[in-house]
Amino acid sequence: MRRWLRIATLAPTLLAATAALAAPPPPAATPPMGWNSWDAYGFTIDEADVKANASVLATLKPYGWTYAVVDEGWYMADPFGKTLAERRYLLDANGLLIPVPARFPSAAGGQGFKPLADWLHAQGLKFGLHIVRGIPKQAVDSDLPVAGSPFHAADVADKTDTCPWDDGNYGVRDTPAGQAYYDSMMALFAAWGLDFLKVDCIADHPYKASEIRQISTAIAKTGRPIVLSLSPGPTNLAHADEVRRLSQMWRISNDVWDGWTFPHAKPTDDFPYGIRDIFDRLPGWAPHTGGGHWADADMLPLGTLAPHPGWGEPRQSRLTPDEARTQVTLWAIARSPLILGANLTKLDEATRALITNRDVIAVNQTAEESHPVTDLPAGFANARVWLATGSGRHYLAVFNLDDKPTALTAPWTQLGLTAGPHAAHDLWDGHELAPAPGLEVTLPAHGSVLYEVR
Fold it and tell me: Helix 47-60 and helix 114-122: axis angle, to 10°?
């Protein structure tokens, strides 16, 4: 009898342990790292460009760069069209967007993106797509049937709900018809082999909680581990719990481009964001980042932004070397996803050095907690400090937001660390700081330093 009682007592524990072992890993156990086509190609990305960039991305895979994301426009017959009619979206018989074979030849014959996804997977990479939430207006005008359901597009569409800055779609109703439409979309994407889905016009202006839930539910039904990324920002902190529960990453700002700051015509304007602006956005999200869910500070507009960047003229990134290093440092220690915007086929050595520093990437990928340091000492009015910890290691980043060089001095205790003496290892240039009771560092304008403190 006692033996049976012991077995009965142990059974719940054994079942729980078995369930834990059987549970699949989260889709984004660490901040996703990869490349997105928007900053260099805008609407114009095609299969040849994807493969050319992915071939370079595959050489960066040993450093963690994994996702190749085809951003907006893959379904447009004419990405240079000035109107929706001129752009000519390509849809299947069930009102779902499909790639244009003239731009993605392997999609011919109804194969969709599966051949391209298979090719990317063979390179050791993962495949991502961008969509704008909703159902295409063309599908609604033709009242196309929704695959696997009794519904039609007219049952799905909310014609009173359109994206303020994209005229292609109507919103999706929070009804069984709306869920059926997203179910059919995610089933198609899963059949293609999708690993990452960026959904736009959903995280802010406007925030569409019902469609986030519908898409998240539809992804879960596929059984495929697809990372769900919500755009654009700034996502409101009031939605933190909901976006964490339903997605793996969400944008905390409007689009970030290659400048320290940008002038805005009105105080309420926030497009585009500069690197300086993100210092004010990330702190509030620090408590909500981690455990497979990541506050996304947007892409890294480094290197060559050409031939058709999503904003502005073709160019080399206008960030100074110090500003580019500061962006990577901040994104790393704040544990933001790291998504490259550069044309990788024109990857320069300076950018390559920024994105192949294993020690800096390790901060982003292995830190278990990070946060800004508050109540900084005198002399730090134009400085910011972040701390991160992980695997018994302690990391310290110091940033100069001033437009001129600055010398900073403080005991370790005023930088959020225990009393010294501490030694430090510079993760960017490799030099060692001898044990000392505090930090003394001179930083250039918009510059930064990242240490492992021992």
Answer: 20
